[in-house]
Structures are given as C-alpha cells and as structure tokens.
Design goal:
Helices cover 39% and strands 23% of the residues. It is built from 17 helices and 17 strands. The strands form 4 sheets. A 5-stranded mixed sheet has the order 3-2-1-4-10.
C-alpha cells in the first residue's frame, strides 16, 4: 500500500504512528494509526515504533506500507534537553527561556550573569542536547555574553551552542569557538531581546528546531530512526506549537493543553485583551509554552497525587486506602477500566494546576495615589478556543467533563480563559503529527486538524 506520508510520534510513555494520504488534494485523508508503549527502557525506541507500525498495518488491512514522505517528532528520554544562560533574569534570560520552550525544549539549567565555577562543573553533567547563550540588548552590554561564550566553548562538549545575544559579539564569539575547535557546533542567530521590552523569539525558535533535527535526541535507537526519515524531525511539544500557531491564524486566540505521561504542556497563541494590555508591566510572547515537569499521569503520578492530597483523593474516588494502594502499585501507562477513575482525577488536577501556572495574574500596587492594579504574565482572558490534545484529554471517557469543570472554576486572581470558551478535542490524536506535517503540507494539515477537532 502506497501513501503520501507517515508520521512517527515517540512520546515519553506511548509511541504513535499515523498515516496520511491525498495531502496535495482538496480532500486530504487521515487513514489511521497504531499505538504501542515507548521502548526507551528496553534500549531501543524502534521496538515500540515497529509494534505501533504493525498495529497500523493491521488497522489498514495491509501487509506492506510505503510512504512517499516520513516525518517524526519525539519527547522520549527527556526530549530536547537545553540550558539557557543570559544576563538579567527578567529580561534576556526570560526571552531566551520563551524561545527554548516555544521550540519544544525541556530546560534543565538556567543562569543569569557570569557563569560561576560551579555552573561550569554542572553543565557537562547534564547530558544536554543544546546550550543557548543570550545577554545584552543590541549595542548594549556585551561582556557577560562574551565571557559565557568563552567559558562554554572551552568546555569542548561537542554539542550545539546557539548564540542569540548582543549582535556586536558575533565576530568575537565565532573566533572563540574556532580557537577552541568548536566552530562546527556554533549557531549564530538574532538577539532574542534586542531592545528593552522587546521579545524576538520566533526566529530563534526555528533555529533551535533546525539544530535539534540535525543533532537528533539521544534516546536509544533515535539515530537509526533519523536515518530512515526523509523529511522533518522536531520535538513533540514544538510540533504541537506549530499546529497551534497554524490553527490560531484560522480560528483566533486559543490555548492548547497536552496532559502527558511525564509532563503537562500548555501552549497559548493569543493577543492580550485591550483591558489587560493597558496594565501589563512586562511583554509576553504571542506564542507561549510552559511545561510542568512535575505534572504527569504516569512517570510523575505520585507528584500529582501529593498535590491533590491522599485524603481528598480517597473522598473524590470513594475508595479505600488499600484500594488506592493497589491501583498505584498496578498503574499502567494506558489505563484499564479499573484505573480510569484515578487517571481522570489526576488529569483534572494536572490540567487545573498547569493552566494556573501558565496564566498571568492581577497584582496590587500601593503608592502615593493609593491602591492600583497591574497585571503580569500571559493573558488568557481573550481566548476563544480551548484545544485538548495528548493521550489523556483525547482518550479518557470523561475528558470533556474534566475540561468543563476546570474552566468553570472561579478564580479572581489568575488571567484564565472564561468558562464560555469553545472546547475542541483532538479526537484523532493527530495534533503533534499535523504540526510536523504542516512544515511541508500546511493547507492539508489545517484541514485535517479542524476535522479532528470537529470544527467546520
């Protein structure tokens, strides 16, 4: 069987393989998918890929499957692991963080100012995929970024380093890396914080994804997969962001949440409401991602249980202490009927907490003129659509009720979406796949995404 494209999505707990056809026609088709557990622990992600591929072939009723194009996205084995090093935490560091997170990275180390001896001892131990150096507005302070670039180059880690700081340092940074024999690992790009209160993260985000694609993630077996892919490979969260940006151009302001096995990702693509924009004290990126590394339904389930509280969890589920212990002891990445109520309760908590962490807040200031109100962080009050993707929010039986319950919670402090927003669920579980696919087939990707969401 010959088709247009196949997309491999290697998650932290599950691996999904999706098939597509008719991508250059008026009626593109999502043909089907196969699912298996991710096999990082077995020493080769390709084992899970082959199992998912076998299920896909069975679902399509074919023994052979040949695709003209193959794509992939991955968050296995920690996904895209990065560190960020800037000048001032609330300025260049924050801008660099936004760029890295928007590209789909998991941040393992963030520093501001000159790197210390301790920092330089820590960095090599983190097993990073990419290091990012920022610092200084254009034609402003240059010493910090230059010093940090020199120290990192001298570590000779043989991993990609992206410089996105003060542009006057470009020639000096290039010379430093050449002297250290690291020039092949250096990538120069525009400043993420070129002027005070100006964030410029889009171009840097693209560079990060290109670097990731060239220097593929270190999960066991991923290099073998990369060699078999003839098109794009990007981090899974970055793929979801690409799909969210594509969708926002058609639908308007939106927030998208993926409650996963290891983390919960929130992506918002939106303008601030006029009312909030007047009192915001810091700029926020148009497309913003936050990743909550402690909120996952499998790898980090114990963290979520602790957030809820054991007593409250027992009351909500109406089960005994021993029954809860049995459920936790036999917990599966893909829940069975007995486990589903617990997984749904954990998903509800992860969704609620991650939204609150992503959203900005009202704050009060007291001065000579009395009390005044300001806002800080991302404004979600102007959101039109809530998009649910990922395994939990697309497959759990009461997914829509979970989302509605969270959106209906009263909160006078956080700049959260209103309860009246339109909820759309990625029923085909293909948002990440279509994000990758959109790099080559944007029109078809948008049509298939809206169909999966049930949006005409």
């Amino acid at each position: 069987m010959r088709i247009d494209a196949i997309v491999y999505e290697i998650g932290s707990t599950t691996t999904v393989v999706s098939a597509f056809d008719g991508l250059e026609t008026e009626k593109p088709q999502f043909l089907g998918q196969g699912v298996s557990k991710t096999t990082v622990q077995e020493g080769d992600v390709n084992l899970g890929i082959q199992a998912a591929l076998a299920e896909l072939k069975q679902n399509l009723g074919t023994e052979t499957l040949e695709a003209a194009s193959s794509f992939a996205c991955s968050s296995a084995a920690g996904g895209l692991k990065m560190s960020v090093h800037g000048l001032v935490f609330d300025m260049t560091v924050r801008a660099a963080k936004e760029a890295a997170l928007g590209a789909g990275a998991n941040l393992h180390f963030v520093t501001s100012g000159f790197l210390s001896d301790y920092d330089l001892l820590k960095i090599p131990k983190l097993n990073l995929n990419i290091i990012m150096i920022a610092g200084g507005v254009d034609f402003g302070e240059s010493a910090t970024a230059l010093y940090n670039a020199s120290q990192i180059a001298n570590l000779k880690l043989n991993i990609p380093v992206i410089y996105s700081g003060n542009i006057v340092n470009h020639d000096a940074v290039k010379s430093i890396f050449e002297t250290c024999g690291q020039e092949e690992f250096l990538f120069l790009t525009e400043n993420v914080y070129p002027k005070i209160d100006v964030l410029r993260v889009d171009e840097v985000r693209k560079v990060i994804q290109k670097v990731f694609e060239k220097h593929i993630t270190k999960a066991p077996g991923m290099r073998k997969l990369r060699d078999s892919i003839n098109s794009t490979v990007i981090p899974t969260p970055g793929a979801v962001m690409e799909a969210a940006i594509l969708l926002q151009k058609d639908l308007g302001n939106l927030v998208c949440v993926d409650v996963g096995g290891a983390t919960t990702d929130v992506h918002s693509v939106s303008e601030d409401s006029p009312e909030i924009a007047k009192i915001l004290i810091n700029p926020e990126p148009f497309a913003k991602r936050t990743v909550e590394g402690d909120l996952g339904l499998c790898i980090n389930k114990d963290n979520v249980i602790e957030l809820i509280g054991k007593t409250k969890l027992l009351q909500d589920l109406q089960i005994t202490d021993s029954e809860l212990e049995e459920l936790v002891a036999n917990y599966q990445p893909i829940p069975d009927a007995k486990q589903i109520p617990l997984t749904e309760r954990l998903a509800k908590e992860a969704l609620a907490v991650s939204l609150e962490r992503h959203a900005g807040k009202y704050q009060s200031l007291y001065g000579s003129m009395g009390k005044s109100q300001i806002a800080e962080g991302k404004d979600l009050t102007n959101i039109k659509y809530f998009i649910a993707t990922g395994g939990a929010l697309t497959r759990l039986p009461h997914r829509r009720e979970i989302i509605k319950a969270v959106l209906s919670r009263k909160n006078a402090i956080n700049l959260l979406p209103k309860a009246e927003v339109t909820v759309a669920i990625d029923n085909d579980y293909i948002m990440a796949a279509l994000g990758v696919l959109s790099k080559k087939h944007p029109v078809a990707a948008l049509k298939l995404l809206k169909k999966s969401l049930g949006i005409r």
